[in-house]
Structures are given as C-alpha cells and as structure tokens.
Amino acid sequence: MSVKCRRWVLKSHFSGMPKREDLDLVEEELPPLKDGEFLCEALWLSMDPYFRPASAGLALGSTMMGAQVAKVTQSKSSKYAVGDLVVGPFGWRTHTNVPETGYESGDLSTYMAKLDPTLYKDRESTALGVLGMPGATAYCGFLNLCTPKEGETLVVNGAAGAVGSLVGQIAKIKGCNAVGFAGSDKKVEYLKSLGFDEALNYKTMGSLSESLKKACPKGIDLFYDNVGGEWFENVLAQMNTFGRVAVCGAISQYNATEQPKGHYVSQLILGHQLRVEGFLTARWLEEWPKAFKQMSDWISEGKLKYEETITVGFDNAFDAFLGLFSGANTGKAIVKI
Ligand SMILES: NC(=O)c1ccc[n+]([C@@H]2O[C@H](COP(=O)([O-])OP(=O)(O)OC[C@H]3O[C@@H](n4cnc5c(N)ncnc54)[C@H](OP(=O)(O)O)[C@@H]3O)[C@@H](O)[C@H]2O)c1
Fold it and tell me: Atom 42, ligand 1: which residue's CA is nearest?
C-alpha cells in the first residue's frame, strides 16, 4: 500500500527572522520499504532554536531538520517492530522510511533510539524534552561544565525554556542558589513555583547590570548562558573568582543580520580567573541514558518539574518554530501531529 508523506522543505536560507515563504509544505509518495527498513509515522515534532543557525548549512530542498517521536507502522526490520515508539532525527515530516542502521539527516542531531516504556510511561513526548536532547543538554552541560558546589549562585537566562527551567532546578537539587531571567511576569511566577530563589522579567526590569547586582548580592559563581549578546559581558563582570561559565546558546543573536558591537571580555575572564566553555550536547551522547534515568527518578520523587507548550497540527509547525523567538513557549516547544 502506498504511503503519502508531507514534509516541510527549506526553500531559501533564513535571513533575519525566519519567514513562512522560506519554507514549502510538500506532499509525496514514499517508495516501498526495503529489507532492513521500517516506516515511522510522526506523533510529535521537536521545535528547537538551533534550527535557525544550523539550517544555514542545510542544502536547499532538504527537509527541515529536527527530532521527532514516531510510531512504527510497517516494518521489514528485525530490530524495530510495528507498534514500537522511536525518537529519531527525521525532521519535519509525517512519514519516514528509516533504515534500522540509522537515519542520515544532515542534521547535528543523529540520536535514534527505541523508547524504553518504563522511562517514557507517562508521556512519550518527554523524549523530545526533559528526557530527550534538551534534558541532556541541561544535565550534562550544567553538571560537567559548571561543576556546581553547595551554596554557589547560578545565573541562567532563557530560564523558563526547555533547557533553562531544568538547569535552575538541577542547581537547586545540588544546593545552589538559582537566579533565573525570563521574558514575562507569568514566566517569572512559573520560575518561582519551580523553586528558583530569584526570578526576573528581563523585558521590564531595567538595567541588566543593576538587576544582576540586586539579585546576586554575593556575586555569581556559575553562569549557564542560553542567550548570549549583552548577557555575556554583563554577567562576566559580576562573577566571583574561579567562576564557571557554560556557553549553551546565543538565541539573542540567531536572527541578527549584523554582528553586535560588544566589549572585549578577555580581561574579565583573566581577572576573575574564570573557566568558560562552549559545548554541543552531542559530545556527551554516552552520558544521555544516565541523565534520563536520573531525571526520571527526580520527576518521580517530585524534585523536578517540566512543562510543555504544545502546538497542534503538522501545518502549524512553522508558527511553533517562530514562537521560540518571541517567547511563546514555556518549557519544551513541541508540535502534536
Ligand atoms: N549547546 C547545545 O548543544 C544546545 C542544545 C540545546 C539548546 N541549546 C541552546 O539553548 C538555548 C535554549 O534552548 P531551548 O531549546 O531550551 O529553547 P527555549 O528556551 O525553550 O526557547 C527559546 C526561549 O528563548 C527566549 N528568547 C528568545 N529570544 C530571546 C532574546 N532575544 N533574548 C532573550 N531570550 C530570548 C524565549 O523566552 P523568553 O520569553 O524568556 O524571552 C524563548 O521561549 C538556545 O539558545 C538553544 O540554541 C544549545
């Protein structure tokens, strides 16, 4: 039986804020399955800020990148059976013929796994969020690079998002003071409900430098940067000696058409004897299962909470993606097919 697939195709590379006309929504028939392949039907699509910078390297005509949770509906594979749930880098498409050896997507993300029903029993969509790539990013990035110690003060921006909301909570579990910044009063309330010691709306708080001083009277020991731009130098200026900085993202710069004029920060790094490290989360792929198990336990123990912002409908994927840049999401942004 022939299978129709709908997919979002990159028509022109984004310049500035992504536009709907940069993408096409196409329909095509999939070829029959070959031996060793299985057919996946998408259930949930992950929406991630990294699509914006990473798509610059995607060939025009390619399917938009990203992970999805899907159900196996046909199989010529001995490893994947009809009914299995998988997470894989299949991109923005409804149906995919997947070789059991792995899926070549041209994306940074290559993680493909069958969902362990004991871990994903409550909700399979968490394989794209708290028990997926963003969860691993928060857990591995924060613990490996910020190396938190009890009593230290963390600053995290993008704090109400998929990664940031987890970083702040993990910091609290490790006995730190968590200070978060997000883009609305509602998000600030959300952060307080998660146990953040201090939360501020960066859009209305006024001076960043003064707000940091007030929120962190003993200085900043750990900085988990999701936003970049002016945040970097302002936070670095107020860091304590031997502070650690994890450079996770720079969403404030992803749509910039010109490089911002900033100050040189090497003197701050030198003077405060800071350790600053950027990372791509896939470097810790082998640690991901341990991270998921630990975070799943914390969820069961009531120590870790997560939120999902669900956009319904494959046709609305672009709107969900765009929403990442205006702060439409709290927690993980996902599309329900
Ligand atoms: N290094 C890695 O391997 C890796 C892996 C995953 C994610 N990341 C990065 O980590 C960051 C967070 O990712 P995520 O998936 O958790 O996304 P997210 O935080 O769930 O969503 C993006 C959020 O960023 C905030 N934002 C958008 N534009 C902003 C701006 N100009 N200034 C300040 N905040 C802005 C918005 O919240 P507000 O309402 O608060 O503005 C928005 O909700 C991103 O920079 C992403 O690229 C890196």
Answer: 327
Question: What pLDDT digit, counting tens, does each position of 217-245 carry?
Answer: 999 999 999 999 999 999 999 999 999 99
Q: Ligand 1, atom 27: nearest CA belongs to which residue?
A: 325
Residue with tokens 């992803």: 254
Compute, in angstroms, the gap from residue 163 CA to the centroid of ligand 1.
8
Whether this prediction's pTM lies above 0.85 is answered by yes
Ligand 1 atom showing the smallest separation from residue 48 Cα = 15
> 133-282, superfamily in CATH?
NAD(P)-binding Rossmann-like Domain (3.40.50.720)
Residue 104: the pLDDT is: 80
Atom of ligand 1 nearest to the CA of 329: 43
Do the beta carbons of residue 208 and residue 231 sit within 8 Å? yes
Which atom of ligand 1 lies closest to the CA of 164? 16
Q: From CA 129, how far away is CA 133, in angstroms rounded?
A: 6
Q: Are 64 and 55 in contact (CB under 8 A)?
A: yes
Domains 3-129+307-336 and 133-282 share a fold: no
Q: Select from 213, 234, 216, 224 the least CA-distant residue to 148.
A: 224
Domain ranges in the chain are 3-129+307-336, 133-282
Protein residues whose CB sits closer than 6 Å to any atom of ligand 1: 48-50, 134, 137, 158, 160-164, 182-184, 187, 226-227, 248-252, 279-281, 324-325, 327, 329, 333
CATH superfamily of 3-129+307-336: Medium-chain alcohol dehydrogenases, catalytic domain (3.90.180.10)
155 and 201 in contact (C-beta within 8 Å)? no
Kindly report, residue by residue over 20-70, the tens digit of the pLDDT.
999 999 999 999 999 999 999 999 999 999 999 999 999 999 999 999 999
